[in-house]
């Protein structure tokens, strides 16, 4: 009894769909390898899963680029022309912009200005004046910031000096008080004295 015909339609169950994809993918890659080896054919196979993951196979003695180039020659279809043309136009546009910027920079430096007209020279002069104004404003801003920082540091140093001076006076007052107390309560050293008689010794008279 033969196998029943399987209806080809999307598998709704995600797990079953993933299992079927893995089996069919492996089968296709196996067939591609077989035909490449058995028939000495150049085979390129690229598969993208529904998740976006890519799987590929290319014959061992070839590459995807070589196979695509051969496809272009055989079919007459140009795969890269539109993309390459857009890329070439973009490169050309960027190159022109760079050349224009280089010319403007030289003109601002005063180079290659002999061929410029009066309006072009006036435009360059205005640009230089505007640039000079911006530079001077920035310089003044930097000067004001530096002056403010210096004033802040000077104020901090003055405050620190006042604090240290106050602490020094406190220490001196404490030391002076201790010395005064030490002198006040220092015990007096005992001393003896001998009273000399005012009258002469009576024994000497006899």
UniProtKB/TrEMBL annotation:
Annotated coiled-coil segments of the chain: 84-111
Domain of life: Eukaryota
InterPro entries cross-referenced by the UniProt entry: MADS-box/MEF2_TF, MEF2-like_N, TF_Kbox, TF_MADSbox, TF_MADSbox_sf
Every K-box domain range: 84-174
GO CC aspect terms: nucleus
Keyword Cytoplasm: no
Domain named MADS-box: residues: 1-61
Key words, A-Z: Coiled coil, DNA-binding, Nucleus, Transcription, Transcription regulation
Location of this chain's protein in the cell: Nucleus
Name of the featured protein: MADS-box transcription factor
Name of encoding gene: CpPI
């Amino acid at each position: 009894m033969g196998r029943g015909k399987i209806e080809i339609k999307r598998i709704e169950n995600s797990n079953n769909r993933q299992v079927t994809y893995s089996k069919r993918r492996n089968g296709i890659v196996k067939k591609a390898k077989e035909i490449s080896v058995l028939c000495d054919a150049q085979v390129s196979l690229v598969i993208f899963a529904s998740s976006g993951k890519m799987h590929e196979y290319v014959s061992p003695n070839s590459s995807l680029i070589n196979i695509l180039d051969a496809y272009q020659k055989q079919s007459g279809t140009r795969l890269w022309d539109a993309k390459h043309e857009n890329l070439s136009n973009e490169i050309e546009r960027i190159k022109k912009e760079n050349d224009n910027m280089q010319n403007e920079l030289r003109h601002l430096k005063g180079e290659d200005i002999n061929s410029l007209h009066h309006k072009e020279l006036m435009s360059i002069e205005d640009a230089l004046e505007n640039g000079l104004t911006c530079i001077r404003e920035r310089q003044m801003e930097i000067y004001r910031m530096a002056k403010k920082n210096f004033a802040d540091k000077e104020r901090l140093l003055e405050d620190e000096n006042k604090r240290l001076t106050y602490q020094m006076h406190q220490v001196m007052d404490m030391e002076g008080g201790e010395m005064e107390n030490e002198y006040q309560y220092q015990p007096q050293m005992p001393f003896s004295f001998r009273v000399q008689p005012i009258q002469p010794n009576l024994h000497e008279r006899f």
